[in-house]
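Thread: "does anyone have the structure for this chain?"

Original post by V.I.:
We have the sequence but no experimental structure in hand. Need at least a predicted one for the grant figures.
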Amino acid sequence: MARGGGSGAVNSLREVLADYLRMRRALGYKLEAPGRQLHQFVSYLERTDARTVTIENAVAWATQPASADPSYWGGRLSVVRQFARHLQTLDPACEVPASAVPPDARDSVPVHRAGDRHIDGSSGEAAVADDGGHLPDAAGAAGGQWPAPR
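Reply from O.Q.:
Generated one for you, tokens below.
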């Protein structure tokens, strides 16, 4: 986890969140709803004994409640993604989730990085992600970060 200023002490996620919100607010961002959401996310991480943000725990939290619209999930994941980008500068073990919620988020957590291969279950062919981590869509053009649901 993140190291404290010279003391060698490890900062908790809650302390890193407080610093993150303080810094962003000093830059003029209000972060009222996102701040509440991040506190809820950190509480979720604490309840699950997570030491850092992972793609799995970010998607699991963002896709609650299961009955919500995927656009709601996307907003929650976006808030976590921004915090995770900050946290990753302090904690290399932190994973930054993709910018979109996969259509089957409740079933799996696909991770695509530049150069990763995605095996199409129907044809067995591999598609190579471009430098932005995007897979080609069915027509071969760069598509979204998540394969289309089958």
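V.I.: this helps a lot. Confidence is low (pLDDT under 50) at residues 2-10, 108-145.
O.Q.: and The radius of gyration is 17 Å.
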